[in-house]
Design brief:
- The structure is a single chain.
- The chain is globular.
- Helix 1 packs across helix 2, helix 3 packs across helix 12 and helix 10 packs parallel to helix 18.
- It is built from 19 helices and 19 strands.
- Helix content is 34%, strand content 16%.
- The chain folds into three domains: 180 residues, Thiamin diphosphate (ThDP)-binding fold, Pyr/PP domains (Rossmann fold, 3-Layer(aba) Sandwich), CATH 3.40.50; 134 residues, Rossmann fold, CATH 3.40.50.1220; 185 residues, Rossmann fold, CATH 3.40.50.970.
- The chain has 547 residues and is of the alpha/beta class.
- It starts with a helix and ends with a helix.
- The strands form three sheets. The protein has a seven-stranded mixed beta sheet, with helices on both faces. A six-stranded parallel beta sheet has the order 8-13-12-11-9-10, with helices on one face. The chain has a six-stranded parallel beta sheet with strand order 15-14-16-17-19-18, sandwiched between helices.
């Protein structure tokens, strides 16, 4: 069998399954796959020479399209660059088909160029892998099904191509073979299965709090009717800004308020988690104060797992079954409202607040991790209703933010997309715009505070490190005008609140290109601490008023 025939068969079979988008990174060993893709007019091709950016681009495309997106790269170290995005896709539940071209097995270990043992590149964060070669052509339909069934996720297909790579017949009869290795999700906890709430011996009218973490729009829409009914019965609900459910929160800062509580009367009898990661992370201290707090995790895909406590309860039925089992009436916790209205001088906080006030309600808003998503979490009352908000909260790294947004903007050209990120995140992902085609419905906003601002806000680095600015913050100087020139972007830089307001007024909002917001490190640290202090004071005053 010739390599070209094997590649054409795989691509044809995947197209029949529903493959419509593939991101390719140029290379030699992957030539049979690229040639096969060129012959399929129903498959849209995106070219991104940087494999790390390519994988995040595919993540964005798949997240928006709601179906598997393919990735194709050459042999050797190229495929290793897919790892961060595949890990993110695995944690988010996003379908990707990572197809890595490879040399014949006899060359592995023989000091051949661009040759590694590729088949175990992604162990631990893929749903399975297939090893494909002439004598074992694999099964494209199984790869597609594996990526989509249950909780979606990435699948690795490693294809060993013999030379010649460009010649030979395109059509040869092939029979699918069983060649996949399946992986189950790791369960590091000792969760206890729960199929009925009566097992928990709750009061007739319990205090119940549900915290929803990162999830996709389909899961969020399926939960929404149940959540609205839950709130009517007296339960408290909170949705992370990455959950798609944040507009329906009973109180935007509910988890932060729970952390501040020291009395039993102010804690729920049942704390429920749904979805993935949440931005507030200081749960260890809460459970030290309340070691008997009952927790239940309701997985949206029926997977075994936990969110807050490894020895907590895990609901074994469907999310609908869980809501149906809740009492008709629940006792509400009295969580006071707090609406952030940051004042003071120029800082990341006041700049972010101004940006949020000016976002169009029908736009798509992408957030980088670290401080960007935390600013928006604290200021979420300023977000316009109707906005669609995304963040890579699976692994929660700073890499790939812009590349993911590029993918979603390309998949949704009729929507306006805005990215808010820090200077380190933009430097880390500056190759995102090497993709072809490029979106023209994307505006990038960078908070340039000269390094990793989060480490200036944390007490540990500045109190223990001899040189926190170098070894934690990775402090840097300069601006991003060079990146704007390289990408032929419109560029604007503002350095105070008046300049930002004038720009937003003149341009009627954030426009395509790069808006750089330059702030000072010390002012940012003080503004963030002041915002948190203001929130705590408001809660203390409300507590004194109740007493």
């Amino acid at each position: 069998m010739k390599s070209l025939a094997l590649a054409h068969w795989w691509i044809r079979e995947l197209r029949a399954c529903g493959l419509r988008e593939v991101v390719v990174s140029p290379g030699s060993r992957s030539a049979p796959l690229i040639l096969a893709l060129e012959s399929e007019p129903k498959i849209a091709l995106y070219v991104q020479p940087d494999e790390r950016s390519a994988a995040f681009l595919a993540l964005g495309l798949s997240r928006q399209a709601g179906r598997p997106v393919g990735l194709v790269c050459t042999s050797g170290s190229a495929g290793l660059n897919y790892a961060p995005a595949l890990a993110e896709a695995y944690q988010q539940g996003v379908s990707l088909l990572a197809i890595t071209a490879d040399r014949p097995l006899r060359f592995v270990g023989a000091y051949e160029g661009q040759t590694l043992w590729q088949e175990e590149f992604y162990a631990g964060f893929i749903k399975g892998r297939m090893a494909v070669c002439e004598s074992n052509p694999g099964n494209p339909k199984e790869a597609w099904a594996l990526s989509t069934q249950g909780m979606p996720g990435p699948v690795h297909i490693n294809m060993r191509f013999e030379e010649p790579l460009y010649g030979g017949a395109l059509e040869q009869p092939l029979e699918p073979t069983l060649s996949q290795a399946l992986f189950s999700r790791f369960d590091f906890g000792k969760t206890r299965p729960l199929d009925a709430l009566k097992t928990l011996d709750l009061p007739a009218r319990p205090k119940v709090v549900i915290l929803a973490g990162h999830m996709g729009p389909q899961q969020a829409q399926a939960l929404l009717p149940w959540i609205l009914e839950f709130k009517k019965r007296g339960g408290l609900f909170w949705g992370d800004v990455s959950s798609q459910l944040w507009p329906y929160s009973s109180q935007a800062q509910l988890p932060d308020w729970l952390w501040e509580q020291t009395e039993e009367k102010n804690r729920p009898q049942l704390l429920v988690s749904m979805g993935g990661s949440v931005i507030p992370r200081r749960w260890e201290a809460y459970f030290e104060r309340f070691p008997n707090q009952t927790t239940v995790h309701v997985d949206l895909f029926g997977e075994k797992g936990y969110r807050f406590r490894p020895d907590g309860w895990c609901w074994t039925g469907s999310p609908a079954g869980f809501f149906e089992s809740l009492p008709q009436e629940m006792e509400a916790l009295n969580c006071p409202a707090w609406n952030a209205e940051p004042g003071g001088g120029w800082s990341d906080v006041t700049a972010t607040a101004e940006l949020l006030r000016g976002l169009p309600g029908d736009s798509v808003f992408h957030l980088a991790n670290s401080m960007g998503v935390r600013y928006v979490h604290a200021l979420q009352d300023l977000l316009p209703k109707g906005i669609e908000l995304w963040c890579n909260r699976g692994v929660s790294g700073i890499d790939g933010t812009l590349s993911t947004a590029v993918g979603q903007a390309l998949a949704q050209p009729n929507k306006w997309h805005v990215v808010l990120m820090g200077d380190l995140a933009l430097n880390y992902d500056c190759n995102a715009m090497l993709s072809q085609p490029r979106p023209n419905n994307l505006g990038v906003v960078v908070l340039n505070n000269g390094g990793g601002q989060i480490f200036r806000n944390l007490p540990g680095p500045k109190s223990r490190s001899m040189d926190a600015e170098t070894y934690f913050v990775a402090a840097r100087e300069g601006d991003f005008e060079w990146l704007a020139r390289r990408n032929a972007w419109a560029y604007h830089c503002v350095q105070d609140l008046g300049e930002l307001r004038a720009f937003l007024h003149q341009s009627k909002g954030i426009v395509a290109g790069l808006l750089e917001i330059k702030t000072e490190a010390q002012a940012n640290t003080e503004a963030w601490a002041g915002l948190l202090s203001e929130r705590r004071a408001a809660w203390n005053q409300a507590a004194r008023g109740r007493d």
